[in-house]
Amino acid sequence: MPNAFCQAGSTEGSAGGRLAGSDFTVSGGSTSDITVALTALGEQVTSGISGFDAAVFVDLLDYGAVSDSTSANFRLASDDPPTFPDGATANCGGAVFAGPDVSCPFALNVQQAYTNTTNDDTRVNNATVTAVSPVTGEQYSMQCMGQSPVVCTGGNNALVAFYA
Q: CA–CA separation, 110 vs 19, rounded Å?
């Protein structure tokens, strides 16, 4: 499932993980504004110009999940300077990043090829994918390694990174 970051059993630094979080206390019968801090993963994902649409749920300590955002929309964004995975120089939207010699349409095609040719069991291993560059019209082979982020290299000095 592309761009599903927070899943049951996922932790920071593994596939998935929190984009933001907060510890807070609100007295019964009252309301309060809550500051929510972005994690390192959240900073990278939201570093694009448009931010990242997100669903929010509340999970109370010693109680469990009590609310979700099925009736509301939230947007995560950061005013901090962009941060990218090592070697990436552009955010292509959400969780996909491109190196200096890569177009965003190609980066998105690499991520899609990876998603189409791997499954949850093979994503912990290396994978080789083939993607078409909309700019050149050529197919390129990319060697993908890692989990969070996945980093793919190949083609003509191409680097694509994404969170799968």
A: 23
Q: Which tokens in the block code for residue 102?
A: 């890569």
Low-confidence ranges of the chain (pLDDT < 50): 1-4, 7-16, 70-73
Whole-number Å distance between alpha carbons of 162 and 52: 14
What's the one-letter identity of residue 6? C
pTM of the model: 0.58
* DSSP string across 124-163: GS-EEEEEE-TTT--EEEEEEE-SSSEEEEETTTEEEEE-
CA terminus-to-terminus distance, the chain: 8
Residue 53, classified by CB atoms within 10 Å of its CB into exposed (0-12), middle (13-18) or buried (19+), is exposed
CA pair distance 125, 71, nearest whole angstrom: 38
What string of DSSP letters covers 13-33? TSSS--SEE------TT----
How far is the C-alpha of 135 from the C-alpha of 10, rounded, in Å?
A: 36
